[in-house]
Amino acid sequence: MKIRFARPEDAAGIVQVHVDSWKTTYKGIIADAYLDSLSVEQRWTHWEKRLKDPEHGEGVMVAENERGQICGFLDYGVDRETGRVHEAELYAVYLLQSEQRKGIGRKMFQSMLNELKAREYGSLMVWVLEQNPAVHFYKRLGGEEAERKEIRIGEETFTEIALHWRDIARLTI
């Protein structure tokens, strides 16, 4: 398993992981009609732009399997709610279902933390759907609930939870 920074040519692999992961992670949570409507074509432009023209302080990391195929990704940057330079936000982390529970998410998270610390970020937060099993992963890593908000996905309303690590210098994986 290899964790590295994403390159523009990784867009296709990231998009495929993004769509496939949504369809498995949110099965039984988000309406099947919405999940069935997700496509690589819908997400392509976003990821192509994101990788070619990243904002200052942001990064995308990918996990490659032993065949060199992208099987996961992690996207992070400046906290979008506050815009404060030294407060980071984990925007997204997704792994193919076949690669989950192998420690890959933990390795990507550690790689991101190392980068954030090197860039002198002080804190980290992530928004996650309340029903997403990843809530437990983040809480085991010491994430503390800071806030809740309602969001719309398709025709449904969901609760998102903000989990926060106030001092990433003390965060150990």
From TrEMBL:
Which residues does the UniProt record annotate as the domain N-acetyltransferase? 1-172
Q: Which domain of life is it from?
A: Bacteria
Which CDD domains does the protein's record reference?
A: NAT_SF (cd04301)
| InterPro entries associated with the record | Acyl_CoA_acyltransferase, GNAT_dom, MshD_Acetyltransferase
- Report the protein name in the record: N-acetyltransferase
